[in-house]
From TrEMBL:
It comes from Actinoplanes utahensis. This is Uncharacterized protein. The chain crosses the membrane at residues 162-188, 194-212, 339-360, 366-395, 407-431, 437-455. The lineage of its organism: Bacteria, Bacillati, Actinomycetota, Actinomycetes, Micromonosporales. GO terms for molecular function: oxidoreductase activity. The keyword Cell membrane does not apply. Keywords: Membrane, Transmembrane, Transmembrane helix.
Length: 465
């Protein structure tokens, strides 16, 4: 909706410029950087200009209407990316306080730029931006209360989901930059240059969002041959999963998860909400409970059953070197620690960058490049540190040192490879610095994901040493 309003405004502005100003916008061009006011003057636009009555009334379309809609456009684009990565994080960050801080930061940044340019409409635009800042907070807070993804959706669990997110973000980024270069710079004459890229980006975006939706709701891993059948007395029942698993699960609770792994020989039965039995290789224990959640032993050679009557009881963790989850998708093994670090890092980065994003971006062009780079690197460093700390805590306690060494070596390999790929993206010629940054970021995430996924797969299941 915001994009449509901005596009219509530019069509009306072009009609005004062609009819009233004879295409000469030099009276405004002296206030703005180069690259503005490249008007569309093709046969369609010329016909519209010739047949539009009272074109003088369209003067308001010059440098004013976008002051109302630039803020919601930027905030919606950022929050859309955040929701694609992690809907649960999106819901947490669309609180009134966070949205108000984001709106204030972006509005102040836009206001400072308005004052720096100081066009004949600066005072009017400052008032419009103040109004936009207030209305946008209420509108986005209301939008944040609406369901944005299927129940239980979270951050990407696999490399495929992460790649779908990266492709979606890169495609949306290109479309926003194309909109900026044409519509927001009053240069509809450059629309034709962006049509091939916009069509390609739109195609990638649709395909990536379709893939992301399919991956997000994919079913649990199939039960291999040789497993004992599952019987259920209630809502959900998952039996044994793995190679040579020989146990079954039966229960009267909401969810019962039996043994999972290679050679597992135990069963799980419960009368509570959730029962998770043994997980791992050679596990020989069972779990039974009457409480809300029962987590049995996890790991290699587990041999002690767990029985609880309280809310939550957890057994021990094993040494698979990967990440295990007992969320809504319990029973699936998530991505390894390398891909998990990328997901956590991007979640932290988007959360930390949320409020100062626009200020840092425009500091590059209107302030100190060094200050902007320092602020950006500080946020990247903090996000990386938080992600590493988070994933390190998820590593198995038994053999954690060896698992951590493998994991960190993989991160170094991924980081070096991704940095080299990003350097290529930064070297790509582009009119706007954002296009180079977008190319660099897309290549960085793509390369890092591929390397981390390959590393995790290669080292999965390695014994602790």
């Amino acid at each position: 909706m915001v994009t449509v309003v901005l596009f219509v405004n530019q069509v009306l502005f072009t009609i005004y410029a062609l009819r009233v100003r004879d295409g000469d916008m030099s009276y405004l061009a002296i206030y703005v950087p180069d690259g503005w006011f490249e008007l569309a003057d093709g046969p369609v636009m010329t016909w519209l200009a010739e047949h539009t009555p009272a074109p003088e009334l369209l003067a308001v379309c010059a440098l004013r209407v976008p002051s109302l809609f630039e803020l919601p456009l930027g905030m919606l684009a950022y929050l859309t990316v955040l929701n694609w990565l992690d809907p649960s994080l999106y819901r947490r960050l669309t609180s009134t306080t966070v949205i108000a801080l984001m709106s204030a930061s972006y509005s102040i940044t836009f206001g400072l730029i308005e004052w720096e340019l100081h066009t004949p409409y600066t005072v009017q635009n400052l008032a419009l931006r103040l109004l936009s800042g207030i209305v946008t907070v209420f509108a986005l807070r209301r939008l944040g209360r609406l369901p944005s993804a299927p129940q239980g959706s979270g951050a990407p669990r696999t490399a495929a989901e992460l790649l779908a997110f990266a492709a979606s973000t890169a495609a949306l980024g290109y479309l926003v930059l194309a909109l900026y270069d044409t519509v927001l710079l009053y240069s509809m004459g450059r629309v034709g240059e962006h049509v091939p890229g916009a069509v390609a980006a739109g195609t990638v975006l649709v395909a990536a969002r379709f893939a992301a939706a399919r991956l997000r709701r994919r079913p649990a891993e199939p039960v291999p041959r040789g497993s004992t059948p599952v019987t259920a007395g209630s809502a959900v029942m998952l039996g044994t999963v793995g190679s040579g698993a020989g146990a079954s699960a039966a229960g009267g609770g909401a969810v019962v998860l039996g043994t999972v792994g290679s050679g597992a020989g135990a069963s799980a039965a419960g009368g509570g909400a959730v029962v998770l039995g043994t997980v791992g290789s050679g596990a020989g224990a069972s779990a039974a409970g009457g409480g809300a959640v029962v987590l049995g032993t996890v790991g290699s050679g587990a041999g002690t059953p767990v029985t609880v009557g309280g809310p939550v009881t957890a057994g021990s963790t094993g040494s698979d070197g990967g990440l295990l989850t007992t969320r809504a998708d319990a029973g699936k093994v998530t991505a390894g620690p390398g891909v998990g670090t990328l997901t956590a890092g991007m979640s932290w980065w988007l959360a930390l960058f949320l409020v100062p994003a626009l200020a840092i971006r425009y500091e590059l062009g209107f302030g100190s490049w060094l200050l902007a780079a320092s602020a950006g690197l500080l946020i990247i460093g903090a996000a990386t540190a938080f992600a590493i700390f988070e994933v390190y805590g998820s590593l198995p306690r038994d053999g954690r040192a060896a698992a951590a060494r493998r994991w960190l070596l993989g991160l170094v390999a991924a980081g070096l490879s991704a940095t080299a790929a990003a350097a290529v993206g930064l070297a790509v010629p582009a009119v706007h610095p954002e296009m180079r940054l977008l190319s660099a970021a897309a290549l960085f995430v793509l390369t890092a994901t591929v390397v981390c996924a390959a590393w995790d797969r290669h080292h999965a299941g390695e014994p602790a040493r």
